[in-house]
Design brief:
7-stranded antiparallel β-sheet; 194 residues; 37% strand; alpha+beta
Length: 194
């Protein structure tokens, strides 16, 4: 979804020959795009880490968090070692940021919160994954949209269903993918659980 709005970029005050002031307001067009982010944590106070990431995303320039799914607990998926369970959720936001900039902000939030990439599927304080950015499809070295593995992951599609109960998110129909997955290991948690 794209929303266009006009934003005041600045005001210029001038004094005319008559001594009266005139005010000219310069405006610029801003394009807001709906995006979807998945969050996950399996180290320490997982709920607090999720809350901090949501707060950070909501404070990005030109970005507003519109909706957050419930939290779900899941066993680690595709990991090479013994790990604690994950807490996962999804959120929908509106942003002025371009997709590459939003991805960079997601990686920056992870780094600021202490995520260390030691090996693939290592335990993590926080995972901030850009799933969808409008109906945009990108396949570049740094960014693939829609997220290439989102339709294979119950821990993504179950929380996504909270936000998009018709199982269609920004033009992506995930109903068949959701039906094909075993969702029995994705457990709704109560707020305040760690």
């Amino acid at each position: 979804m794209l929303i266009r709005r006009t934003q005041k970029a600045g005001a210029v005050s001038t004094r005319g020959a008559t001594g009266f002031r005139s005010l000219r307001v310069e405006t610029r067009k801003v394009v807001m795009t709906e995006a979807v982010i998945a969050l996950g944590s399996n180290i320490g106070n997982r709920e607090d880490h999720i809350r901090q990431a949501i707060y950070a995303l909501g404070h990005l320039p030109g970005t507003t968090v519109l909706m957050v799914s419930n939290n779900y607990e899941t066993e680690p998926f595709g990991v090479p070692d013994e790990q604690d369970d994950y807490l996962n959720c999804c959120l929908k936001l509106m942003t002025e940021l371009q997709p590459e900039t939003l991805l960079g902000a997601c990686l920056g939030i992870e780094a600021a919160m202490g995520k260390v990439r030691t090996y693939k599927n290592a335990p993590r304080i926080i995972d901030v994954d850009l799933l969808l950015y409008g109906d945009l499809q990108i396949n570049s070295k740094d960014l693939i949209l829609p997220h290439p593995r989102m339709l294979e992951r119950a821990f993504v599609l179950v929380p996504l269903s909270d936000i998009y109960p018709n199982h269609s998110a920004l033009g992506l129909d995930f109903s068949q993918a959701l039906k094909s997955l075993d969702i029995s290991g994705v457990k709704l948690t109560e707020r305040g659980s760690r």
